[in-house]
Amino acid sequence: MIRFLTSDMAKYLPGVLAPALVGLVEIPILTGLFSPQEYGSYALTITMVVVLDLCAGWLTLSVLRFYPAAERDQRLGSLYGSVLLSAAGWIALLAGGLITVVLALSSTLAARQREFLLIGSAIFVVLAYFHVLLHFLRASRRVGWYSAFSVWLHLARLAIALTLVRVMGWGLEGFLWAYVISLAVACPFLQWISLPPGQHLRLRAEGRIIAQMLRYGFPLVVCLLMDWAMNLSNLFFLKYFRSPDEVGIYAASQGVFSKGLFLLTTLFHTAAMPLEMRVWEKEGPDQARRFLSQVSRYFILVCLPLAGLLVVLARPIVVVLTAREYHQGYRIVPFLVAGGLLLGLQQRFQGGLLFRSRSILVMCGFLLAALGNLGLNLLLIPRYGYMGAAAGVTGGYVLLLSFMCITSRRFFSWPFPVRSLARSALAVAVAAGTVWGLGQMVGQAHWVLILVGVPSGLVVYVAAVVLLGEVSPREWQALRELVLRSDRRAPEPVVVEEQTGP
User: Fold this and answer.
1) Are 480 and 454 in contact (CB under 8 A)?
2) For 469, which DSSP code?
3) Domain residue spans in the chain?
4) Is 73 helix (H, G, I), strand (E, B) or coil?
């Protein structure tokens, strides 16, 4: 299965990039057309939709976990029916709860906010159902379709929103209704395409499957909510203990630097998790150990240099992308980058627990991390401000990774690529030193340093990794074959040689 990882990542890339790119375009449009008060109501509505969608995450995560076993046992029809009927009931329950709360609080809510929240309930219904169907494509490795629908959601939504607002004269509600329209158009096609091959749509639920999904998925919903809360709680603590200015400085640097590394870790996790479950269910524990080790090696070799470049170029990036009052935020970048790496690494160790369906232990790890983050926030933020907030997030992820490492090895141990980590770290140090030297030469020419430093750092890193012997003869041979046949047919993914710890 490792040979499919690189090709799947390439196919997932458009679907992962689309929301980030659309967000970069959308924010200036929203803030330019509407008042801060209206934009605040819009942001609150979208936040509510996100929270409810996370609460429905047990359905999508269960699809990823149990699809390979159902495919092996020829029970895909039962899984599909059980998931869809469970989704219909759960989504209706959550949406009904939101509508009830909004109506009950109608006398205290502004009319505009009430309208937005009611539209938000409609967004949640179609979005949650869309995500459930989409994860059948992810679980079955129909990656092209997965990315196509992901790109459609974001591009079509933006186009419809601009049409409603600029052409038809709607207000900010046009951006909300654009969610509903774009999702409603896509769902019938997605319903048909997501149907497992050779299956007919028969909505028949099995109590055993639903119970299995609940036991596995609900603890993971707590994990999703805890991770989301960890990344937002810092802003509230900063506002309470310090000042709105520090909230802005922290949020600006977090927004700039978390996106790059987060996109890469998301891409790895999106591609790797369905493959991990397939290897476990269809090829057995030994191949699963080998696969986890190789995916971790890929993760280290690709993500560590990006992290190093973000740290050494933190100040010029912040200076170029933000106003002067935000420039001091570059000091929190090492903490933010370290947190992103730790989060990505713990996802690799989660596999051992999820193979055994020990999701309750994964939940315990996230609860420990959230409590640790809370304690560090209370201890550090009053004294150190946004630096303490960044350190608190990193500390929470240190606890999370430590818990996952220790706990997962009790149920499923695998060889971590220690040698690859050491070689990559040394290569990153050499590359970072090179970029730092370039910075001393160019002085305050921040754009020049970024444009020259990124490619220079990557070239030095690759050269150092090669000189340190990280690329095996077998991999060199595979790369040569890839180049030789590239002009004759589409290239196949490279098969890497396993390199694990001592």
Assistant:
1) no
2) T
3) 7-205, 219-416, 429-485
4) coil
Closest by CA to 267, choosing from 292, 302, 232, 291, is 302
Confidence of residue 500 (pLDDT cuts 50, 70, 90): very low
Q: How confident is the model at residue 495 (pLDDT cuts 50, 70, 90)?
A: very low
Cβ atoms of residues 366 and 417 within 8 Å: no
User: What does the pLDDT look like over 138-162, one tens digit per residue?
Assistant: 999 999 999 999 999 999 999 999 9
Res. 493: pLDDT tops 60: no
Q: Cα separation of 388 and 293, whole Å? A: 34
Contact 75, 114 (CB under 8 A): no
- Helix or strand (DSSP H, E) at 58: helix 57-72
pLDDT at 491 over 60: no
User: Which pTM value belongs to this model?
Assistant: 0.83
Residues 134 and 444: their CA atoms lie apart, in Å, by 47
In angstroms, the CA 436 to CA 430 distance is 10
Alpha carbons 13 and 267: distance in angstroms, whole number: 7
Q: What is the DSSP string of 119-173?
A: HHHHHHHHHHHHHHHHHHHHHTT-HHHHHHHHHHHHHHHHHHHHIIIIIS---TH
Provide the Cα torsion 321, 326, 327, 328; round to 10°.
Answer: -150
Give, as one character, the DSSP assignment of residue 167.
I
| Average pLDDT score over residue span 312-334 | 84
Mean pLDDT of all residues belonging to the chain: 87
Sequence-ordered alpha helix ranges (H) in 385-471: 386-411, 418-442, 446-467
pLDDT tens digits, one per residue of 439-458: 888 777 778 888 888 899 99
Question: Which ranges of 331-358 does DSSP label H, i.e. alpha helix?
Answer: 333-355
Residue 493's SS3 state is coil
Neighbours of 32 (CB within 10 A): 7
Mean pLDDT of 376-387: 92
Distance CA 247, CA 284 (A): 48
